[in-house]
TrEMBL record:
Assigned keywords, A-Z: Acyltransferase, Glutathione biosynthesis, Hydrolase, Transferase, Zymogen
Record organism: Alkalihalobacillus alcalophilus ATCC 27647 = CGMCC 1.3604
EC number: 2.3.2.2, 3.4.19.13
Active-site residues from the entry: 358 (nucleophile)
Segments traversing the membrane: none
Complex and partners: This enzyme consists of two polypeptide chains, which are synthesized in precursor form from a single polypeptide.
Domain of life: Bacteria
Pathway where it operates: Sulfur metabolism; glutathione metabolism
Name the record gives this protein: Glutathione hydrolase proenzyme
Family the UniProt entry places it in: Belongs to the gamma-glutamyltransferase family.
SUPFAM superfamilies per the UniProt record, alphabetical: N-terminal nucleophile aminohydrolases (Ntn hydrolases)
Listed InterPro entries: GGT-like_enzyme, GGT_peptidase, GGT_ssub_C, Ntn_hydrolases_N
Protein backbone atom coordinates (compact mmCIF):
# COMPACT_ATOMS: atom_id res chain seq x y z
CA UNK A 1 0.00 0.00 0.00
CA UNK A 2 1.40 3.43 -0.88
CA UNK A 3 1.99 5.51 2.24
CA UNK A 4 -0.05 8.67 1.80
CA UNK A 5 1.31 11.56 3.83
CA UNK A 6 0.67 14.70 1.79
CA UNK A 7 -1.78 17.45 2.72
CA UNK A 8 -4.44 16.06 0.42
CA UNK A 9 -4.52 12.79 2.36
CA UNK A 10 -3.92 14.31 5.79
CA UNK A 11 -7.21 16.06 6.57
CA UNK A 12 -8.11 18.55 9.26
CA UNK A 13 -9.19 15.98 11.83
CA UNK A 14 -5.78 14.32 12.25
CA UNK A 15 -4.38 15.14 15.66
CA UNK A 16 -0.84 13.80 15.33
CA UNK A 17 1.70 12.88 12.69
CA UNK A 18 2.14 9.43 11.23
CA UNK A 19 5.22 7.52 12.49
CA UNK A 20 7.91 6.01 10.25
CA UNK A 21 10.61 3.47 11.12
CA UNK A 22 12.75 0.82 9.46
CA UNK A 23 14.02 -1.73 11.99
CA UNK A 24 10.91 -2.30 14.07
CA UNK A 25 7.67 -0.89 15.41
CA UNK A 26 5.21 -1.57 18.25
CA UNK A 27 1.87 0.23 18.39
CA UNK A 28 -0.49 -0.11 21.33
CA UNK A 29 -2.64 1.86 23.75
CA UNK A 30 -0.03 2.41 26.49
CA UNK A 31 3.48 3.92 26.09
CA UNK A 32 5.23 1.75 28.69
CA UNK A 33 3.89 -1.44 27.12
CA UNK A 34 4.89 -0.30 23.62
CA UNK A 35 8.41 0.37 24.85
CA UNK A 36 8.56 -3.06 26.49
CA UNK A 37 7.85 -4.64 23.12
CA UNK A 38 10.43 -2.50 21.37
CA UNK A 39 13.02 -3.52 23.96
CA UNK A 40 12.53 -7.14 22.89
CA UNK A 41 13.30 -6.20 19.29
CA UNK A 42 16.47 -4.40 20.35
CA UNK A 43 17.54 -7.50 22.33
CA UNK A 44 17.37 -9.61 19.18
CA UNK A 45 13.78 -10.74 19.45
CA UNK A 46 11.24 -10.71 16.64
CA UNK A 47 7.75 -9.27 16.20
CA UNK A 48 6.24 -12.26 18.00
CA UNK A 49 8.46 -11.72 21.05
CA UNK A 50 7.52 -8.04 20.99
CA UNK A 51 3.80 -8.82 20.89
CA UNK A 52 3.99 -11.24 23.83
CA UNK A 53 6.04 -8.86 25.96
CA UNK A 54 3.65 -6.01 25.17
CA UNK A 55 0.60 -8.15 25.95
CA UNK A 56 1.99 -9.29 29.29
CA UNK A 57 2.97 -5.73 30.17
CA UNK A 58 -0.51 -4.43 29.32
CA UNK A 59 -2.02 -6.69 32.00
CA UNK A 60 -0.11 -4.54 34.50
CA UNK A 61 -0.15 -1.05 32.98
CA UNK A 62 -3.72 -1.16 31.61
CA UNK A 63 -5.70 -3.41 34.01
CA UNK A 64 -8.93 -1.57 33.16
CA UNK A 65 -9.02 -3.39 29.82
CA UNK A 66 -7.23 -6.71 30.22
CA UNK A 67 -5.46 -8.97 32.65
CA UNK A 68 -3.83 -12.34 33.20
CA UNK A 69 -7.35 -13.79 33.25
CA UNK A 70 -8.08 -12.54 29.70
CA UNK A 71 -8.65 -14.18 26.33
CA UNK A 72 -6.74 -13.26 23.17
CA UNK A 73 -6.50 -13.81 19.40
CA UNK A 74 -3.53 -13.34 17.07
CA UNK A 75 -2.76 -13.13 13.37
CA UNK A 76 0.93 -13.80 12.75
CA UNK A 77 2.78 -13.13 9.48
CA UNK A 78 5.95 -15.23 9.27
CA UNK A 79 7.90 -16.30 6.18
CA UNK A 80 5.24 -14.93 3.84
CA UNK A 81 2.43 -16.90 5.45
CA UNK A 82 -0.39 -15.83 7.78
CA UNK A 83 -1.25 -17.92 10.84
CA UNK A 84 -4.20 -17.54 13.21
CA UNK A 85 -4.32 -18.38 16.92
CA UNK A 86 -7.59 -18.62 18.85
CA UNK A 87 -6.81 -17.95 22.50
CA UNK A 88 -10.39 -17.99 23.79
CA UNK A 89 -11.55 -20.50 26.39
CA UNK A 90 -14.61 -22.66 26.84
CA UNK A 91 -17.43 -22.55 29.36
CA UNK A 92 -16.76 -24.66 32.47
CA UNK A 93 -18.12 -28.22 32.32
CA UNK A 94 -20.42 -27.50 35.23
CA UNK A 95 -22.02 -24.41 33.65
CA UNK A 96 -25.33 -24.83 31.83
CA UNK A 97 -28.51 -22.91 31.08
CA UNK A 98 -30.29 -24.90 33.79
CA UNK A 99 -27.87 -23.97 36.58
CA UNK A 100 -27.83 -20.32 35.47
CA UNK A 101 -31.64 -20.29 35.54
CA UNK A 102 -31.56 -21.85 39.01
CA UNK A 103 -29.31 -18.98 40.11
CA UNK A 104 -32.08 -16.57 39.13
CA UNK A 105 -30.98 -15.52 35.64
CA UNK A 106 -33.66 -16.35 33.09
CA UNK A 107 -33.36 -13.92 30.18
CA UNK A 108 -29.68 -12.97 30.12
CA UNK A 109 -26.32 -14.12 31.45
CA UNK A 110 -25.06 -11.90 34.29
CA UNK A 111 -22.23 -9.50 33.51
CA UNK A 112 -20.44 -9.74 36.86
CA UNK A 113 -19.58 -12.45 39.34
CA UNK A 114 -18.48 -16.05 38.88
CA UNK A 115 -21.14 -17.24 36.43
CA UNK A 116 -19.88 -15.43 33.27
CA UNK A 117 -16.24 -16.52 33.75
CA UNK A 118 -15.01 -18.89 31.05
CA UNK A 119 -11.54 -20.46 30.89
CA UNK A 120 -9.01 -17.63 30.33
CA UNK A 121 -6.87 -18.30 27.27
CA UNK A 122 -4.16 -15.65 27.27
CA UNK A 123 -1.36 -17.20 29.38
CA UNK A 124 -1.24 -20.46 27.40
CA UNK A 125 -1.62 -18.54 24.13
CA UNK A 126 1.43 -16.41 25.01
CA UNK A 127 3.44 -19.57 25.64
CA UNK A 128 2.20 -21.22 22.45
CA UNK A 129 3.16 -18.20 20.33
CA UNK A 130 6.59 -18.14 21.96
CA UNK A 131 7.23 -21.86 21.40
CA UNK A 132 6.24 -21.80 17.74
CA UNK A 133 7.61 -18.49 16.52
CA UNK A 134 9.56 -16.67 19.23
CA UNK A 135 13.33 -16.21 19.43
CA UNK A 136 13.91 -15.03 23.01
CA UNK A 137 13.36 -17.14 26.16
CA UNK A 138 9.82 -16.91 27.50
CA UNK A 139 11.18 -15.70 30.84
CA UNK A 140 12.71 -12.66 29.14
CA UNK A 141 9.39 -11.67 27.59
CA UNK A 142 7.66 -11.28 30.95
CA UNK A 143 10.46 -9.31 32.62
CA UNK A 144 9.06 -5.83 31.84
CA UNK A 145 5.62 -6.77 33.16
CA UNK A 146 7.15 -8.22 36.33
CA UNK A 147 9.25 -5.09 36.85
CA UNK A 148 6.29 -2.71 36.51
CA UNK A 149 4.11 -4.85 38.77
CA UNK A 150 6.77 -5.08 41.46
CA UNK A 151 8.39 -1.65 41.34
CA UNK A 152 5.45 0.37 40.07
CA UNK A 153 4.72 2.82 37.28
CA UNK A 154 2.98 6.22 37.04
CA UNK A 155 -0.65 5.80 36.00
CA UNK A 156 -1.48 7.39 32.64
CA UNK A 157 -4.41 9.84 32.20
CA UNK A 158 -6.90 7.66 30.28
CA UNK A 159 -6.12 4.71 32.54
CA UNK A 160 -6.83 6.83 35.63
CA UNK A 161 -10.14 8.03 34.18
CA UNK A 162 -11.30 4.52 33.35
CA UNK A 163 -10.13 3.20 36.72
CA UNK A 164 -12.15 5.88 38.52
CA UNK A 165 -15.26 5.14 36.44
CA UNK A 166 -14.99 1.42 37.21
CA UNK A 167 -14.45 2.07 40.91
CA UNK A 168 -17.53 4.28 41.17
CA UNK A 169 -19.65 1.70 39.36
CA UNK A 170 -18.31 -1.25 41.35
CA UNK A 171 -18.93 0.51 44.65
CA UNK A 172 -22.62 0.51 43.75
CA UNK A 173 -23.09 -2.91 42.16
CA UNK A 174 -20.31 -5.20 43.46
CA UNK A 175 -21.45 -5.48 47.05
CA UNK A 176 -21.21 -9.25 47.61
CA UNK A 177 -18.32 -10.78 49.54
CA UNK A 178 -16.90 -12.40 46.41
CA UNK A 179 -15.92 -8.96 45.08
CA UNK A 180 -13.99 -7.92 48.19
CA UNK A 181 -10.67 -8.99 46.63
CA UNK A 182 -11.20 -6.64 43.68
CA UNK A 183 -11.30 -3.64 46.03
CA UNK A 184 -8.33 -4.92 48.07
CA UNK A 185 -6.33 -5.38 44.86
CA UNK A 186 -7.28 -2.36 42.76
CA UNK A 187 -8.32 0.19 45.40
CA UNK A 188 -6.35 -0.88 48.50
CA UNK A 189 -6.50 2.57 50.09
CA UNK A 190 -10.19 2.99 49.40
CA UNK A 191 -9.58 4.90 46.17
CA UNK A 192 -8.21 4.07 42.73
CA UNK A 193 -4.89 5.66 41.70
CA UNK A 194 -4.95 9.05 40.06
CA UNK A 195 -3.02 10.14 36.95
CA UNK A 196 0.68 10.35 37.75
CA UNK A 197 0.46 8.28 40.93
CA UNK A 198 2.67 5.22 41.27
CA UNK A 199 0.78 1.92 41.15
CA UNK A 200 2.27 -1.41 42.27
CA UNK A 201 0.89 -4.93 42.34
CA UNK A 202 3.35 -7.26 44.11
CA UNK A 203 0.90 -10.17 43.97
CA UNK A 204 0.63 -9.86 40.20
CA UNK A 205 4.42 -9.69 39.99
CA UNK A 206 4.65 -13.00 41.83
CA UNK A 207 2.05 -14.53 39.51
CA UNK A 208 3.89 -13.33 36.41
CA UNK A 209 7.12 -14.86 37.76
CA UNK A 210 5.29 -18.15 38.21
CA UNK A 211 3.99 -17.94 34.63
CA UNK A 212 7.47 -17.13 33.31
CA UNK A 213 9.09 -20.00 35.19
CA UNK A 214 6.52 -22.59 34.10
CA UNK A 215 5.76 -21.24 30.59
CA UNK A 216 2.24 -20.49 31.83
CA UNK A 217 1.53 -24.08 32.93
CA UNK A 218 1.03 -23.13 36.58
CA UNK A 219 -2.13 -21.28 35.53
CA UNK A 220 -3.62 -24.45 34.05
CA UNK A 221 -2.09 -27.41 35.87
CA UNK A 222 -0.15 -26.11 38.87
CA UNK A 223 -0.43 -24.00 42.03
CA UNK A 224 -2.16 -21.07 40.31
CA UNK A 225 -4.79 -23.43 38.89
CA UNK A 226 -5.36 -24.77 42.40
CA UNK A 227 -5.90 -21.26 43.79
CA UNK A 228 -8.35 -20.38 41.01
CA UNK A 229 -10.33 -23.59 41.45
CA UNK A 230 -10.46 -23.29 45.24
CA UNK A 231 -11.70 -19.69 45.04
CA UNK A 232 -14.48 -20.55 42.61
CA UNK A 233 -15.54 -23.55 44.66
CA UNK A 234 -15.61 -21.47 47.84
CA UNK A 235 -18.07 -18.96 46.37
CA UNK A 236 -20.23 -21.32 44.36
CA UNK A 237 -18.61 -20.66 40.98
CA UNK A 238 -18.27 -23.27 38.26
CA UNK A 239 -14.68 -22.99 36.99
CA UNK A 240 -12.52 -25.92 38.15
CA UNK A 241 -8.97 -27.12 37.69
CA UNK A 242 -10.15 -29.80 35.27
CA UNK A 243 -11.54 -27.04 33.02
CA UNK A 244 -8.20 -25.25 33.10
CA UNK A 245 -6.24 -28.44 32.44
CA UNK A 246 -8.36 -29.29 29.40
CA UNK A 247 -7.80 -25.95 27.68
CA UNK A 248 -5.47 -25.52 24.69
CA UNK A 249 -5.21 -22.53 22.33
CA UNK A 250 -6.11 -23.50 18.77
CA UNK A 251 -4.27 -22.73 15.54
CA UNK A 252 -6.86 -21.77 12.93
CA UNK A 253 -6.94 -20.82 9.27
CA UNK A 254 -7.66 -17.08 8.91
CA UNK A 255 -10.58 -16.11 6.68
CA UNK A 256 -10.49 -13.32 4.10
CA UNK A 257 -12.21 -11.46 1.30
CA UNK A 258 -10.85 -9.53 -1.64
CA UNK A 259 -11.62 -5.83 -1.21
CA UNK A 260 -10.63 -3.66 -4.17
CA UNK A 261 -7.47 -5.68 -4.84
CA UNK A 262 -6.47 -6.17 -1.20
CA UNK A 263 -7.04 -9.23 0.98
CA UNK A 264 -8.64 -8.33 4.31
CA UNK A 265 -8.00 -11.09 6.88
CA UNK A 266 -9.81 -11.93 10.11
CA UNK A 267 -9.88 -14.74 12.67
CA UNK A 268 -12.75 -17.16 11.89
CA UNK A 269 -15.65 -17.73 14.32
CA UNK A 270 -16.08 -17.82 17.25
CA UNK A 271 -14.66 -14.30 16.67
CA UNK A 272 -16.84 -11.61 15.09
CA UNK A 273 -14.39 -10.75 12.30
CA UNK A 274 -16.88 -12.32 9.90
CA UNK A 275 -19.12 -9.29 10.51
CA UNK A 276 -16.44 -6.95 9.17
CA UNK A 277 -15.83 -9.12 6.12
CA UNK A 278 -19.53 -9.40 5.25
CA UNK A 279 -19.91 -5.63 5.59
CA UNK A 280 -16.96 -4.89 3.32
CA UNK A 281 -18.20 -7.46 0.81
CA UNK A 282 -21.57 -5.70 0.65
CA UNK A 283 -19.91 -2.29 0.32
CA UNK A 284 -17.57 -3.39 -2.46
CA UNK A 285 -20.60 -3.32 -4.75
CA UNK A 286 -20.64 0.49 -4.54
CA UNK A 287 -18.23 3.19 -5.65
CA UNK A 288 -17.28 5.75 -3.01
CA UNK A 289 -15.66 8.89 -4.33
CA UNK A 290 -15.92 11.01 -1.21
CA UNK A 291 -15.62 10.15 2.47
CA UNK A 292 -17.56 13.02 4.03
CA UNK A 293 -20.73 12.47 2.06
CA UNK A 294 -24.07 11.40 3.51
CA UNK A 295 -24.54 8.59 0.99
CA UNK A 296 -21.17 7.09 2.02
CA UNK A 297 -22.13 6.96 5.70
CA UNK A 298 -25.67 5.78 4.97
CA UNK A 299 -24.49 2.78 2.97
CA UNK A 300 -21.75 1.95 5.50
CA UNK A 301 -24.25 1.95 8.37
CA UNK A 302 -26.88 -0.05 6.48
CA UNK A 303 -24.36 -2.68 5.39
CA UNK A 304 -23.02 -2.96 8.93
CA UNK A 305 -26.52 -3.50 10.35
CA UNK A 306 -27.21 -6.36 7.94
CA UNK A 307 -23.89 -8.07 8.64
CA UNK A 308 -24.16 -7.59 12.39
CA UNK A 309 -27.57 -9.20 12.77
CA UNK A 310 -26.24 -12.14 10.74
CA UNK A 311 -23.25 -12.37 13.04
CA UNK A 312 -25.32 -12.17 16.22
CA UNK A 313 -27.60 -14.89 14.85
CA UNK A 314 -25.06 -17.38 13.53
CA UNK A 315 -21.61 -16.87 15.12
CA UNK A 316 -20.75 -19.23 17.95
CA UNK A 317 -18.33 -22.06 18.69
CA UNK A 318 -17.25 -23.19 15.19
CA UNK A 319 -18.01 -26.81 16.03
CA UNK A 320 -21.68 -25.85 16.45
CA UNK A 321 -22.19 -23.25 13.72
CA UNK A 322 -25.17 -24.09 11.51
CA UNK A 323 -24.04 -21.59 8.84
CA UNK A 324 -20.42 -21.42 7.75
CA UNK A 325 -18.49 -18.26 6.79
CA UNK A 326 -18.36 -19.23 3.11
CA UNK A 327 -22.17 -19.17 2.94
CA UNK A 328 -22.42 -15.72 4.51
CA UNK A 329 -19.71 -14.41 2.16
CA UNK A 330 -20.99 -16.02 -1.05
CA UNK A 331 -21.71 -13.70 -3.96
CA UNK A 332 -25.31 -14.87 -4.14
CA UNK A 333 -26.01 -14.16 -0.47
CA UNK A 334 -24.11 -10.85 -0.46
CA UNK A 335 -26.12 -9.68 -3.46
CA UNK A 336 -29.36 -10.40 -1.61
CA UNK A 337 -28.20 -8.46 1.45
CA UNK A 338 -26.98 -5.53 -0.66
CA UNK A 339 -30.35 -5.35 -2.43
CA UNK A 340 -32.00 -4.58 0.92
CA UNK A 341 -30.17 -1.24 1.20
CA UNK A 342 -32.41 1.60 0.10
CA UNK A 343 -32.66 5.35 0.49
CA UNK A 344 -33.95 5.18 4.07
CA UNK A 345 -32.65 3.57 7.25
CA UNK A 346 -33.93 0.06 7.85
CA UNK A 347 -34.47 -2.07 10.94
CA UNK A 348 -32.26 -5.07 10.17
CA UNK A 349 -33.24 -8.73 10.32
CA UNK A 350 -30.97 -11.74 9.82
CA UNK A 351 -30.87 -13.36 6.41
CA UNK A 352 -31.26 -17.02 5.46
CA UNK A 353 -28.11 -18.24 3.70
CA UNK A 354 -28.54 -21.25 1.44
CA UNK A 355 -27.42 -24.48 3.11
CA UNK A 356 -26.18 -25.26 6.32
CA UNK A 357 -12.70 -3.39 27.71
CA UNK A 358 -9.78 -4.64 25.27
CA UNK A 359 -6.19 -3.92 24.24
CA UNK A 360 -4.74 -4.17 20.75
CA UNK A 361 -1.12 -4.59 19.68
CA UNK A 362 0.50 -4.30 16.26
CA UNK A 363 4.17 -5.25 15.89
CA UNK A 364 6.67 -5.49 13.04
CA UNK A 365 10.37 -6.30 12.78
CA UNK A 366 13.12 -5.75 10.22
CA UNK A 367 12.83 -9.31 8.88
CA UNK A 368 9.26 -8.83 7.68
CA UNK A 369 7.48 -10.59 10.57
CA UNK A 370 4.31 -8.85 11.73
CA UNK A 371 1.71 -9.56 14.42
CA UNK A 372 -1.87 -8.43 14.96
CA UNK A 373 -2.76 -9.26 18.56
CA UNK A 374 -5.80 -8.48 20.71
CA UNK A 375 -6.48 -9.27 24.36
CA UNK A 376 -9.45 -8.52 26.57
CA UNK A 377 -11.35 -9.01 29.80
CA UNK A 378 -14.51 -8.32 27.71
CA UNK A 379 -15.50 -5.11 29.50
CA UNK A 380 -13.47 -3.08 31.95
CA UNK A 381 -11.87 -5.17 34.69
CA UNK A 382 -14.01 -8.12 33.62
CA UNK A 383 -16.16 -10.11 36.01
CA UNK A 384 -15.08 -8.26 39.14
CA UNK A 385 -13.68 -11.57 40.43
CA UNK A 386 -10.04 -11.43 41.52
CA UNK A 387 -8.32 -14.57 42.80
CA UNK A 388 -6.92 -13.76 46.29
CA UNK A 389 -3.15 -13.49 46.55
CA UNK A 390 -2.55 -13.55 42.78
CA UNK A 391 -3.64 -10.24 41.26
CA UNK A 392 -5.51 -12.28 38.61
CA UNK A 393 -8.68 -10.50 37.45
CA UNK A 394 -10.98 -12.93 35.64
CA UNK A 395 -12.76 -12.03 32.39
CA UNK A 396 -16.56 -12.17 31.97
CA UNK A 397 -16.66 -13.47 28.41
CA UNK A 398 -19.57 -15.84 29.15
CA UNK A 399 -21.89 -12.83 29.31
CA UNK A 400 -22.27 -13.18 25.52
CA UNK A 401 -23.85 -16.64 25.73
CA UNK A 402 -27.58 -16.85 25.05
CA UNK A 403 -29.89 -18.46 27.63
CA UNK A 404 -32.31 -19.37 24.85
CA UNK A 405 -31.64 -23.08 24.27
CA UNK A 406 -32.69 -22.75 20.61
CA UNK A 407 -30.23 -19.93 19.82
CA UNK A 408 -27.09 -20.87 17.87
CA UNK A 409 -24.96 -19.29 20.62
CA UNK A 410 -26.85 -20.96 23.49
CA UNK A 411 -24.77 -21.71 26.58
CA UNK A 412 -23.54 -25.28 26.79
CA UNK A 413 -20.81 -26.85 29.00
CA UNK A 414 -17.43 -26.83 27.26
CA UNK A 415 -18.56 -24.45 24.50
CA UNK A 416 -16.87 -21.28 23.23
CA UNK A 417 -19.12 -18.24 23.03
CA UNK A 418 -19.45 -15.52 20.37
CA UNK A 419 -16.31 -13.46 20.89
CA UNK A 420 -16.00 -9.72 20.29
CA UNK A 421 -12.21 -9.35 20.08
CA UNK A 422 -10.78 -9.55 16.56
CA UNK A 423 -7.31 -8.82 15.14
CA UNK A 424 -7.14 -7.73 11.50
CA UNK A 425 -4.49 -8.06 8.81
CA UNK A 426 -4.10 -6.71 5.26
CA UNK A 427 -2.19 -8.24 2.35
CA UNK A 428 -1.88 -7.52 -1.36
CA UNK A 429 -0.59 -9.82 -4.07
CA UNK A 430 0.61 -12.34 -1.50
CA UNK A 431 2.68 -9.74 0.37
CA UNK A 432 2.01 -8.32 3.82
CA UNK A 433 0.67 -4.80 4.07
CA UNK A 434 0.28 -5.07 7.82
CA UNK A 435 -1.72 -5.50 11.01
CA UNK A 436 -4.64 -3.34 12.12
CA UNK A 437 -7.23 -3.42 14.86
CA UNK A 438 -9.81 -1.39 16.73
CA UNK A 439 -10.77 -2.31 20.29
CA UNK A 440 -14.14 -1.86 21.95
CA UNK A 441 -16.55 -4.81 22.25
CA UNK A 442 -19.16 -4.61 19.45
CA UNK A 443 -17.47 -1.54 17.97
CA UNK A 444 -14.61 -3.70 16.72
CA UNK A 445 -15.94 -4.88 13.32
CA UNK A 446 -17.40 -1.42 12.82
CA UNK A 447 -13.98 0.08 13.47
CA UNK A 448 -12.33 -2.42 11.12
CA UNK A 449 -14.65 -1.44 8.29
CA UNK A 450 -14.11 2.27 8.85
CA UNK A 451 -10.29 2.18 9.05
CA UNK A 452 -10.01 -0.18 6.06
CA UNK A 453 -12.24 2.05 3.93
CA UNK A 454 -10.36 5.13 5.15
CA UNK A 455 -7.12 3.46 4.06
CA UNK A 456 -8.16 1.87 0.76
CA UNK A 457 -11.12 3.88 -0.55
CA UNK A 458 -10.12 7.30 0.76
CA UNK A 459 -6.31 6.87 0.80
CA UNK A 460 -5.70 8.14 4.32
CA UNK A 461 -2.41 7.36 6.03
CA UNK A 462 -2.60 5.16 9.17
CA UNK A 463 -2.83 8.04 11.63
CA UNK A 464 -5.43 9.93 9.64
CA UNK A 465 -7.42 6.72 9.13
CA UNK A 466 -7.59 6.27 12.92
CA UNK A 467 -8.24 9.92 13.79
CA UNK A 468 -11.21 10.30 11.46
CA UNK A 469 -14.55 10.79 13.31
CA UNK A 470 -16.36 7.49 13.84
CA UNK A 471 -19.92 6.25 13.93
CA UNK A 472 -21.27 3.22 15.77
CA UNK A 473 -24.49 1.37 15.00
CA UNK A 474 -26.08 0.48 18.33
CA UNK A 475 -29.38 -1.28 17.52
CA UNK A 476 -32.39 -1.00 15.19
CA UNK A 477 -31.97 2.48 13.63
CA UNK A 478 -29.92 3.97 16.50
CA UNK A 479 -26.49 5.30 15.50
CA UNK A 480 -23.96 6.93 17.85
CA UNK A 481 -21.77 9.68 16.39
CA UNK A 482 -18.65 11.24 17.88
CA UNK A 483 -18.88 14.91 18.82
CA UNK A 484 -16.35 15.71 16.06
CA UNK A 485 -18.58 14.14 13.39
CA UNK A 486 -19.65 16.68 10.70
CA UNK A 487 -22.87 18.28 11.97
CA UNK A 488 -24.40 18.79 8.53
CA UNK A 489 -24.02 15.11 7.64
CA UNK A 490 -25.48 14.10 11.01
CA UNK A 491 -28.60 16.12 10.18
CA UNK A 492 -28.84 14.55 6.72
CA UNK A 493 -28.58 11.07 8.23
CA UNK A 494 -31.46 11.95 10.56
CA UNK A 495 -33.57 12.87 7.55
CA UNK A 496 -32.86 9.41 6.12
CA UNK A 497 -34.43 7.82 9.18
CA UNK A 498 -31.34 7.15 11.30
CA UNK A 499 -31.88 7.84 15.00
CA UNK A 500 -28.75 9.89 15.65
CA UNK A 501 -27.22 10.29 19.10
CA UNK A 502 -24.16 12.55 19.50
CA UNK A 503 -21.92 11.53 22.40
CA UNK A 504 -19.04 13.41 24.00
CA UNK A 505 -17.69 10.15 25.41
CA UNK A 506 -15.00 8.75 23.08
CA UNK A 507 -14.95 5.35 24.81
CA UNK A 508 -17.71 3.64 22.75
CA UNK A 509 -15.87 4.30 19.49
CA UNK A 510 -12.90 2.05 20.19
CA UNK A 511 -9.16 2.49 20.17
CA UNK A 512 -7.01 1.27 17.32
CA UNK A 513 -3.54 0.84 15.89
CA UNK A 514 -2.19 0.28 12.38
CA UNK A 515 1.23 -0.60 10.92
CA UNK A 516 1.68 -0.67 7.14
CA UNK A 517 4.90 -1.77 5.42
CA UNK A 518 5.99 -0.12 2.16
CA UNK A 519 6.52 -2.99 -0.30
CA UNK A 520 9.54 -1.45 -1.99
CA UNK A 521 11.56 0.21 0.77
CA UNK A 522 10.42 -1.90 3.72
CA UNK A 523 9.73 1.31 5.65
CA UNK A 524 7.12 0.90 8.39
CA UNK A 525 4.36 3.48 8.73
CA UNK A 526 2.29 3.47 11.92
CA UNK A 527 -0.70 5.15 13.46
CA UNK A 528 -2.04 4.90 17.00
CA UNK A 529 -5.19 5.94 18.77
CA UNK A 530 -5.62 9.58 19.74
CA UNK A 531 -8.64 8.62 21.90
CA UNK A 532 -6.42 7.06 24.55
CA UNK A 533 -2.82 6.99 25.82
CA UNK A 534 -1.77 5.40 22.53
CA UNK A 535 1.88 5.17 21.58
CA UNK A 536 4.11 3.93 18.77
CA UNK A 537 7.56 2.76 19.82
CA UNK A 538 9.77 2.81 16.74
CA UNK A 539 13.34 1.85 15.88
Amino acid sequence: MPIHNDAQHYPYYSKRNVTFAKKGMVATSQPLAAQAGLDMLKKGGNAIDAAIATAACLTVVEPTSNGIGSDCFALVWVNNELYGLNGSGQAPKGLSIEVVNQAGYIDEMPRYGMIPVTVPGSPRAWAELSRRFGKLPFTALLEPAIDYAENGYPVSPTLAKNWQKAFELYQTILTDQVFKTWFLTFAPNGQPPKAGEIWRSPEQAATLRELAKTEAESFYTGPLADKISEHFQKYGGFLRKEDLEAYQPEWVNPISIDYRGYQVWEIPPNGQGLVALETLKILEGYTFNERNYVETYHKQIEAMKLAFVDGMTYITDPSEMKVNPEQLLSEEYISKRRALIGEKALTPKPGQPLGGGTVYIATADADGNMVSFIQSNYNGFGSGVVVPGTGIAMQNRGHNFSLNKDHDNALRPGKRTYHTIIPGFLTKGGHAVGPFGVMGEFMQPQGHVQVIMNSIDFKLNPQAALDAPRWMWKKDKVVFLEQSFPADIAKQLSRLGHQIEITVDEAPFGRGQIIWRDPESGVLCGGTESRTDGCIAAW
